[in-house]
Amino acid sequence: MSDTSPRVISISSGKGGVGKTFVSVHLAAQAARSGKKVLLIDADLGLANVDVMLGLHTGGSIRNLLADDAALEDLIIHCDRGFDVLPGGSGIYELTNLNVGEQQTILDSLREAGRDYDLILIDTAAGIGDNVLYFASAAETAVIVLTPDPTSLTDAYALIKVMSQQRDVHRFMVIINQTDEIDGQITFKRLLSVADRYLDVYLDYIGHIPQHPSVRQAIQQQRLITESDSAVGPHLNKLFETLLARPRDHSRAGGLQFFWEHSLASTLDASPDELAADAMQTQGVSS
Ligand SMILES: Nc1ncnc2c1ncn2[C@@H]1O[C@H](COP(=O)(O)OP(=O)(O)OP(=O)(O)O)[C@@H](O)[C@H]1O
Ligand SMILES: [Mg+2]
């Protein structure tokens, strides 16, 4: 894999509502500002909301790719924040559980359209469903977002466990949202101590994002947080600079190469539900 191939980063979480889409759209905007050609894929299929956060009017979505044989290029929106968006489609139950053939159709389309980009960000659904595992493990780098909330911590651990044991993903970047520096570090150390003890994974703490009313306001107004927005704007800039400056992961056959060529037809040994139940016997993770 060369550094000139597009970099694929997934943004996932165990528990929902922790800030994945917020992180995804701002990371996309920042990378675009720094001159990168960015595609943001809304892979929270069936409950997609990147378009809502950005105030975009979508004509089609991944659904048209699967149901109508539409070309992926025709579904991509060139948004005025300087990056492209592939909408995920909302209220469409069939998208919430793609079968292997449908996953392959998306993969085939990305093989073509993805070449033009420097960075492809995938905002996934929460949890450990098949779609999440598919998208997150196809990326070169998996970012896990969580909050200090014990259930968020436990679910992040469950996701990391399932991805490492079922999908051979062993490196994760971690962002703790809605917290301060000290609680962010305490939360990360909790996650790390359990992961180190029970899993074969490497966790890279990128940092925390403060909780601030300006985030909710910006989302309600369908605008992005800017550099001048409270304490959060400059903080986000630094955080994403750190993230984007991390060296690419050559340790696995990652990136688009993997994303394009890896076959996901392999079947799971155990169902995600069984693994989740196992993981959530917490092993002390939430205390
Ligand atoms: N740093 C923050 N400060 C204050 N509020 C925040 C912050 N981050 C996120 N929020 C609030 O959390 C809500 C959920 O954020 P977001 O939609 O990004 O989460 P998500 O993980 O993508 O959710 P889902 O799992 O439903 O896709 C936002 O609408 C916002 O109100
Ligand atoms: Mg979301």
From TrEMBL:
Q: Keywords, A to Z?
A: ATP-binding, Cell projection, Cilium, Flagellum, Nucleotide-binding
What GO molecular function annotations does the UniProt record carry, in alphabetical order? ATP binding; ATP hydrolysis activity
Q: Which domain of life is it from?
A: Bacteria
Could you name the Gene Ontology cellular component terms for this entry?
A: cytoplasmic side of plasma membrane; cytosol
List, in alphabetical order, the GO biological process terms annotated in this UniProt record. Answer: negative regulation of cell division
- State whether keyword ATP-binding applies: yes
Read off the CDD domains from this record: FlhG-like
Instruction: Using the record's annotation, list all stretches that form the AAA domain.
Output: 7-165
Name of the featured protein = Flagellar biosynthesis protein FlhG
Q: Organism, per UniProt?
A: Mariprofundus micogutta
